[in-house]
């Protein structure tokens, strides 16, 4: 392919993601918006030839996104897990589990807190977290008249933040690998896992977003578009806005032919627990095998950091589907034919979301070829000083993640650029180095949360059966609030040496609580619409 970067100004590399984001927000047509962004990028990369760009958008970028092994693993995992969810719904298992949990989640506060707690418990992987929490809690939150936008927010607010912070997750191997590679290249002898642990208190955005999600659930206070969505759901009984188009219609998977007396809570719980346990066990087995091949110490840290989360996810979703089908067929809730049709219905419900994911990945590939991230870093990187380094890196990571829609891609792009830069500018100032590394990870999650083309944002909409643009619109003010507080008090304050990271976290939590109290209001304090 002929690259056109020689005669394309660097600022034009921002146009494809900006077009995709702008069209998605303005016209609420995510698929068309993504494809237009890909086409524009292909146009810039192929000598401004529109027909060639049209062809490349399909035979190069879309095909390349599908051909990527990791992407294919995510698609298979999601489709297979969607099939499992279809079986749970058709068999009445989801209804039975909902009834069981409803005994605890008896009101709106408990429903939201239960969703938040489930998000913390499924910490192994953000994809698994999103799909399992959203699809499991949706019948409960629907019954409690909690808007789909609020459900999608709580799901999104726990998935990536908890997975990025967890000591055992699909993220940890990637994070430690990036740190180890750059430290080795620079001749720094610190253990990468120990560095990873020391960065956790500096990851202000994910830590504060977890806190904020809990604060919103407990206080029952909302502001901005989320407040309007909650008022609509509670006072008008509309879980979604008029004209909303959910990314996936998982609520339509239920089979009314299954008698309610046959709805067994364990028909849903056992497959879900199977998925979680299989992910953990598979990651351990795969990691142990790899550690033995490499001749490394068989420590839990080495085992999980050298594992392959994609294979573990595939195995887990497949085994979970087998358990789900086996339970309902074995207990004659559904025939084998009915169970397989239910599984296929679940798979079909994920197709639109998979199209969006493939297009989002394709746009990310276009941005890499256009060197969008390099342009952002190069533009902002010439005047950096050590004190402002963590704050500026947070902004750059957020911009890159927002524009490309991928937190993992952002980490892969920025780690080779930022760690050498931080080492050169900060020298022996460990706090600046740790803050810079943390800012990559925190900024990537922040930008991912704000971006309508992010895979985890799309999957949160999908699992919650929420209109994707409505999810983005209602979550954005919350994400911006948390991001701004973490940026000012955390990244800037700690970088300038005004206080340490623990004091920054405490002050940030206090400020977020005050803002929620001042800006937010409970439903009983919101006047009914005229």
Question: How would you characterize this protein structure?
Answer:
This protein is globular. The protein is mainly alpha-helical and 530 residues long. 74% of the residues lie in helices and 0% in strands. 56% of the residues are buried. The protein has 24 helices and no strands. Helix 4 crosses helix 16 (336-348), helix 5 (93-102) packs across helix 7 (126-143) and helix 6 (108-121) runs antiparallel to helix 7 (126-143). It has helices spanning 15-27, 30-45, 50-67, 69-90, 93-102, 108-121, 126-143, 148-165, 172-186, 192-199, 204-219, 225-236, 266-294, 300-305, 309-330, 336-348, 351-369, 372-380, 389-404, 407-426, 430-450, 455-463, 468-495, 501-519.
Query: In terms of structural class, how would the helical and strand content be classed?
Result: mainly alpha
In the predicted model, the low-confidence regions spanning at least 5 consecutive residues are: 1-7, 252-256, 526-530
Quaternary organization:
single chain
Number of helices: 24
Nearest-angstrom radius of gyration?
Answer: 23 Å
- SSE order in H/E notation? HHHHHHHHHHHHHHHHHHHHHHHH
Distance between the termini: 59 Å
The largest β sheet comes out as: none
Overall pLDDT metric: 84
